[in-house]
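User: Okay, second chain of the day. Same drill as before: sequence in, structure tokens out.
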Amino acid sequence: MNLHEQLGALEMGVDQLIQAVVPPQAEKTPEASAPAVASHDAPVEAAASAATPADVADVADAAEAAEPPAAPTPPTLEINRPAQNEITMTINGQTVALRAEQIGQLIEELSNARASMTPEPPPGIPPGWRFVSTKNPVMAVQKQSNGDRLLVMRHTGHGWVPFTFSPDMVIQLYMMLTKG
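Assistant: Same drill. Structure tokens below.
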């Protein structure tokens, strides 16, 4: 399976996951018309005898259609690490193997998507949170036209992670890092 096929399978699996998580919008159907009421002038037997076998079949079909469909089985996602430099993702039985560069691309896409979602990540570090720390990361700094500073740090797992600091925040960061 080449890269495009793997990404296509991954996109299809993500779409399936989204469909499983996001409830489908209720279809707007016209309300069923009120059932016909036999008039007091005509006997009920006459109304019943006027129905043809096809009418009875239509009523039976409508009753079957009114029954709620069986709930579809939600897609399953399995993530495995068969080798040091490979992760496999299986969605509904379809497996895609991802190498380091593809994983980096997936992390970047997920990070960009997560940044626009609510709720935001918690303001404090959650208890039991697991992480990998990068000691002495490679960094780049750039001054912005409004006085802010762009700091980009290279994390071994997340890749290049950018942060923008206002001048006041730069001072706070300096004080936090030099506090003894």
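The chain is about 35% helix and 20% strand.

User: Thanks, on to the next one.
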